[in-house]
Design goal:
The complex is a heterodimer.
Chain A lengths: L3 H4 L20 E4 L21 H6 L2 E4 L4 E2 L2 H21 L2 E3 L19 H6 L4 E9 L4 E10 L4 E11 L3 H17 L8 E8 L6 E8 L6 E2 L7 E6 L5 E6 L6 E6 L5 E3 L7 E6 L5 E7 L4 E7 L5 E3 L7 E6 L5 E6 L6 E6 L6 E2 L6 E7 L6 E7 L2 E7 L7 E6 L2 E6 L5 E7 L12 E7 L6 E3 L4 E7 L5
Parallel strand pairs in A: 2-4, 2-5, 3-5
Antiparallel strand pairs in A: 1-7, 5-6, 6-7, 8-9, 8-31, 9-10, 11-12, 12-13, 13-14, 15-16, 16-17, 17-18, 19-20, 20-21, 21-22, 23-24, 24-25, 25-26, 27-28, 28-29, 29-30
Chain B lengths: L2 H24 L1 H8 L15 H8 L2 E3 L9 H16 L5 E6 L6 H21 L7 E7 L10 H7 L1 E6 L1
Parallel strand pairs in B: 2-3
Antiparallel strand pairs in B: 1-4, 2-4
Helix pairs in contact in B: 1-2, 4-5
Classes of the chains: A mainly beta, B alpha+beta.
């Protein structure tokens, strides 16, 4: 699967999407060859750091990430900061075990093209090591060289140099993290991504809910709306810098499109009822969402080019929270047509509706994994809320996290991690101590972690990979 | 719990009681409106046909059981008074806002709140109110009337509230 002799030749298509901070910044990546790429393995039969995700869950890959070298000033600081962001990303994935820098035998200096001292890295237990350097290229530009080494066989797995603006350094760190993830685990990472979510502030009966966006590690937080109207349920476009969300602007709750480049907001379609729970189609050509009506709500597909809408359900019940399968052929949604909230599947044209949730309790907020193999959901049962996954045919249900209140899973683009939000129960008539926080968890239910946000946070949506 | 901690708690309790009293003194109408029970005696300061009139003297809200939008006999009695009031003040338009408790999911609750607002509207229309005078909206679980996190609070937050538009 991984052809290591070709590894150093791999080029990367970067900057396909440029969200916000990345803005007009161009980001250039070139493969690093050099003499080392052709170096024969020092120890060809040795075990490799390259494993798969299942094995890494049981035994996270020990990896050494010393500061990238710099020539003083900005470049030296950037070298430390980039290594720090990579370390944080890989540690939070639960699949890597970054080795404490205090234990390093060598302090990495000089040309990263120098062969690392594999014996020293082996001695501190590293199976992989990252080296690199940061160079200034004029006032605002930096060149970041990065190499990934397999310690036991003593081979270079990857070598790439990136050129970008100084302010774009975090993206470089995330891109390098994704390269490490992909080279060592054999599948795409999810670090060069963003989270759009709802930032909550103020007392609960006059809650201010704003649209906010941040990097997946919680950095570069920005509020996209000012709180003069309530914003809910944001969802990313699969390829464009655009969000669909629900806005209470003018006391007329509707689904809007929000252009991240220009900040322009536009109501989607012309509907008589409240429109809610939008999701883009996998090819980005349409949005599927619900509209309230006399009996509840029904599901509609809206074409983004013509704004023509097509009604998909007419059950006389509440049909809400539709989400396409990754191939666009099916829709999973939430309905109370059988008496309480359950999950249903239908063709993208509304045909062949079939219930898929049969466990104990009510089921809500279905979301299809980008891998296609799982549907994540919120379950309400026995006075508790939980986040779980099941196969799209309803089999193999597993509960990953349960507490007083959790809701709204969203998949990382590689389908390996879910993010959702958790609220704690407040005390007394003013609900003192009530909090709302984002949480991430591996789809096997391990490695549950809170995601730091500047305010209370709810309803996260994970972006596709930006590069 | 140490004696010292208990002392502190008691002190905090006393302080918050004072704060509540002060708030009530400022806005006496708020407490009465929140009960939703109408009385026939009209306070002299209340303008007939106003929102305050509706809230204090008619009853501006009806309540629902968990995950339901069916009107109870109490709710119908309140809506009967609202219908009569709408007949009396024929130039007044109203909005009915449906709300839910916090023990449901966001998107479903918006639809459920709308269903509750619709139920109240349909009843008023059946009692003779012109549908053109009534708009509806749902805030799902995002505009609770009270902030607590227990069954008492949730029961108050499962409602449809009529207000003058």
């Amino acid at each position: 699967m991984l052809n290591r002799s070709d590894a150093s030749m791999t080029n990367f298509c970067l900057g396909r999407r440029s969200l916000l901070a990345a803005g007009a910044t161009s980001l250039l990546a070139v493969p690093l060859r050099g003499a080392l790429a052709q170096t024969a393995p020092a120890n060809p039969g040795a075990p490799s750091a390259v494993i798969d995700v299942d094995r890494a869950r049981a035994a996270p890959i020990p990896i050494a990430i010393p500061a990238l070298s710099g020539a003083g000033g900005d470049t030296e600081r950037l070298g430390r900061d980039i290594a720090g962001v990579i370390t944080n990303n890989l540690a939070r994935s639960g699949l890597f075990r970054p080795i404490d820098q205090a234990g390093f035998i060598v302090s990495p200096t000089g040309n990263p093209g120098d062969l690392p001292n594999f014996q020293n890295w082996k001695a501190v237990g590293a199976q992989a090591v990252v080296t690199g350097k940061v160079e200034s290229e004029g006032a605002d530009k930096v060149r970041v060289e990065f190499r990934l080494w397999d310690v036991l066989p003593g081979t270079q797995i990857q070598g790439t140099a990136y050129t970008t603006t100084l302010s774009n350094w975090r993206r470089i760190a995330h891109i390098i993290s994704d390269v490490i993830y992909e080279r060592l685990l054999g599948e795409k990472g999810y670090f060069d991504t963003r989270i759009v979510y709802i930032a909550g502030s103020g007392p609960r009966d006059r809650r201010i809910k704003r649209l906010a966006i941040m990097d997946q590690d919680g950095e570069n937080n920005r509020f996209l709306t000012d709180g003069t109207f309530m914003a809910l349920t944001p969802r990313f476009h699969p390829t464009k810098d655009e969000i669909a969300f629900m806005s209470y602007a003018n006391d007329r709750p509707r689904v809007y499109l929000f252009d991240l480049g220009t900040g322009r907001q536009q109501v989607l379609g012309d509907f008589h009822g409240i429109t809610l729970s939008p999701r883009f189609s996998p090819d980005g050509s349409g949005v599927v969402m619900a509209q309230t009506d006399d009996a509840g709500s029904s599901i509609y597909a809206v074409d983004l080019a013509s704004h023509h809408s097509r009604r998909l359900t007419d059950s006389g019940a509440i049909d809400v929270s539709p989400c396409y399968s990754p191939d666009g052929s099916q829709i999973v949604f939430n309905s109370d047509r059988d008496g309480d909230q359950q999950l249903y599947l239908m063709g993208a044209d509304g045909s062949g509706v079939k219930r898929i949730s049969f466990g104990k309790g009510r089921y809500a907020t279905p979301v299809w994994s980008p891998r296609g193999d799982l549907v994540a959901f919120t379950r309400i049962s026995g006075g508790l809320f939980s986040i779980g996954v099941m196969h799209p045919d309803g089999s193999g249900e597993r509960i990953l996290s349960e507490s007083w209140y959790v809701e709204g899973p969203t998949f990382a683009p590689n389908g390996r991690v879910l993010m959702f939000w958790r609220e704690t129960q407040g005390v007394g008539p003013r609900a003192r101590g009530a909090t709302a926080k984002l949480v991430s968890i591996d789809i096997t239910g391990f490695n549950e972690r809170e995601v730091t946000t500047p305010t209370d946070a709810s309803d996260p949506a994970w972006s596709p990979l930006l590069s | 719990m140490s004696i010292k901690t208990m002392g502190t708690l008691k002190l905090l309790g006393a302080l918050s009681a004072v704060a509540l009293l002060a708030a009530c003194a400022d806005k006496p109408a708020t407490t009465a409106a929140a009960t939703g029970t109408g009385t026939t005696a009209m306070a002299p300061s209340i303008v007939p046909g106003s929102e305050e009139d509706l809230a204090k003297n008619v009853g501006d809200r009806v309540f629902f059981t968990f995950d339901k939008a069916a009107l109870s006999s109490d709710s119908k009695a309140t809506l009967d008074r609202q219908a009569a009031w709408l007949t009396k003040y024929a130039s007044v338009n109203v909005q009915i806002a449906g709300n839910c408790d916090e023990r449901g999911t966001e998107e479903y609750n918006i639809a459920l709140g709308q269903r509750r607002a619709n139920a109240a509207r349909d009843y008023l229309v059946a009692k003779g109110a012109a549908s053109a005078r009534i708009t509806t909206i749902s805030y799902g679980k995002d505009r609770p009337s009270v902030m607590g996190s227990d069954e008492t609070a949730w029961a108050k937050n499962r409602n449809a509230i009529t207000s003058v538009k």
